[in-house]
Amino acid sequence: MHRDTFAPVFFLSVSSWGFAMGIRCRSSLRLAGLAIVLGCVSPCFAGAASAVADEVTFTRDIAPILQRSCQHCHRPDSVAPMSFLTYEEVRPWARAMKTRTALRNRRGAMPPWFIEKDIGIQHFKDDPSLSEDEIAAIAAWADSGAPRGDPADLPPPRFVVGEDDGWRIGTPDLILRSPEITVRATGADRWEPIGVVPTGLTQDRYVEAVEIREVNDIPKGSAGGTVGGRFVFHHLNYSSHVLEDEQPEAFTAETTTVWPVHEVGRNADIFPADAGRILAADSVLNLETAHLHSNGRETKAHLEFAFKFHPVGYRPNVEWVRRFTGNGVDISIKPTLADQELHAYTVLQQHTKILTFEPHMHAPGIRMCLEAIWGASVQTLTCAGYDHNWVRSYVYADDAAPLLPEGTILHLIGYMDTTPANRNVADPRNWGGGGRRSVANMFIDLGEGLALSDAEFEREMGDRRKRLGLTKNDVVIGCPLCQVHFPSQADTPAGP
User: φ and ψ at 179, to 5 degrees?
Assistant: First the structure.
């Protein structure tokens, strides 16, 4: 329904390929209606796209792609089962790379970025997705025998083994470790608390970024046949508190921070500069509920929590708001049926800047879309494929993050597939209802945002209008009032 009901737009797309990658730029102009989506031009260089016509080599064409889009995970001490830092490490995986990158936004795709590129907002932070030229270059390289190429063409390394121990946020200021758990080789999913971890902090600290990774005794290069592959933690809900009477359930509300949900394969959380989260002195991490699943072998595992702090003295000035749109209870998923739709609605009670889109479903989930309804305007903000083995949080770019007024209706649409084509489903013949196990179902957007006052909301829109050069006739996806000139914005021109 969303591709058909999406408001007509005049869509200006300036697409750039090869950010420091040796791939030529191209731009496209597509006419489809009334709104303008503005992008920015990245530096581009000649290389891999044209090289598809002759020989594509690792050193000149493939290595830059891997550095930008793959090596964050595919390096020692990181989440991926194999390293892609050298030609010798990459060469055996050439055919698999061709297959997985060709999946684009579908289950199993690599890199794990499932945003659909033909609808909604297209600008995100830390976007590792590949252009069509890059996908073609990888295929051509694999088909030609994966040649090494001239060593002189190899770019300087982006990652150095041991430099940051594989943390995507860089070297952490604090690392905490959960208690170790043992998950049996087979058995039903578990949903349970796993303990309390003292932070050891002697003063309040505001957190700039947090990253979580699972450490287990599953050998590198191996994977189980169940959801999560190499992992037994599917996701974890956790918070931090200052305890009363040393009891996990007794805490001081004023010192409580709810942290983003950890999910298998999830990227690190980097908070906006004016909205850091507090980790209080004398607090503990309360690991409230972990979703654990068997992985085909008995596994010992724990989680590591890495925090980077703002400087001492930092104070945030914007209020966090957690959007919990969706349904995890009254769900009915029929067996052996594709394209089943689930719908949920919520009305924003405050002006809101949406920072992230984070689909959360269980094994049958294949796709999720988020719409914003404001008066007669119905806009699809984002659609993304979904893979229960690799859950992503998509962080909107600063000038693309939806700015939605109080009263906006958010419409969440989930798509489920219980046919044998969805290999995440254990038994396609089974009906599935709502619940916490992978064989049960949820349908939730765990994305987060900022609550804005009237003045903050008007200022955000005025600043965006000025930066993007918007006129009163422009309509920007995700900002239905951006073209409106408020009296408080006397210094921000409304445009012609």
Answer: -60, 150
Is residue 344 assigned to a domain? yes
In angstroms, the CA 414 to CA 444 distance is 8
Q: From residue 9, how far is each of 29, 32, 65, 461, 476 by CA, in Å?
A: 12, 5, 32, 20, 9
Within a domain: 158: no
pLDDT digits (tens, 9 = 90+) for 253-297: 777 899 999 998 888 999 988 888 999 999 999 999 999 998 888
Phi, psi (deg, nearest 5) at residue 297: -150, 150
The pTM of the full predicted model, rounded to 2 decimals, is 0.82
Give the CA distances from residue 495 to residues 161, 224, 276, 382, 469, in Å, rounded to whole numbers and listed in that order. Answer: 51, 58, 34, 28, 8
> Are 184 and 294 contacting, i.e. CB atoms less than 8 angstroms apart?
yes
Domain span at residue 252 reads 176-316
Q: Are residues 308 and 186 in the same domain?
A: yes
The tokens for 488 are 């408080």
The single residue listed with the structure tokens 């409304």 is 494
Distances (CA, A) of 127 to 140, 383, 397, 400: 23, 15, 10, 13
What is the C-alpha to C-alpha distance for residues 101 and 108, in angstroms, rounded to an integer? Answer: 9
Q: Which of 240-249, 272-281, 321-330 has the highest mean pLDDT?
A: 272-281
Q: Which residues of 153-180 are buried (b: 16+ CB within 10 A; e: fewer)?
A: bbeeeebeeeebebbbbeebebebebee
73-83 burial by CB neighbour count: b if 16+ within 10 A, else e? Answer: bbbeebbbeeb
Backbone angles phi, psi at 92, to 5 degrees: -65, -15
Residues 326 and 345 in one domain: yes
Contacts of 357 (CB under 8 A, 6+ apart): 370, 381, 382, 384, 393, 394, 396, 445, 447
3-state class of 95 per DSSP? helix
Query: Cα–Cα distance between 128 and 205 in angstroms, integer?
Result: 31
Residue 283 DSSP SS3 = coil
